[in-house]
């Protein structure tokens, strides 16, 4: 009986560790998707024609909101956030 109890405890612990690892990977994947989305938005700005139209105010606000979320999640540093914020605001 003690062997079965030990096996159940080890199995349960392994299950919970595996679940935590998967949650961590999911979180990282979500953060990477947000970064990729932001980078693609920035690339679209750089690939615009020679006389680009200024982004609409709502687009700029959406980008700033997304940047703030990345900052709050710890994906961006304050310096990176400030640099990107300046780019967005100067393009308006």
Brief write-up:
This protein is 82% helix and 0% strand. It is mainly alpha-helical and 92 residues long. The chain has one domain (2-90).
- Outline type: rod-shaped
Distance between the termini: 71 Å
Strand percentage, roughly?
under 5%
Radius of gyration: 22 Å
What is the mean pLDDT? 83
Please mark out the parts with pLDDT under 50 across 5 or more consecutive residues, or reply none. none
What is the count of DSSP helices, taking H or I runs of 4+ residues?
3
Characterize the largest beta sheet: strand count, sense, and whether it forms a barrel. none
Briefly note the structural class of the backbone: mainly alpha
The tally of structural domains comes to 1
Task: Report the strand count.
Answer: 0
The arrangement of helices and strands along the chain is HHH
**Percent range for helical residues?**
over 70%
What are its keywords?
92 residues, mainly alpha, 82% helix, 0% strand
Explain this structure.
By secondary structure, the chain is an all-alpha fold. It has one domain (2-90). The chain is built from 3 helices and no strands. The mean pLDDT is 83.
Map the helices and strands.
Blueprint: H1 2-46, H2 57-73, H3 78-90
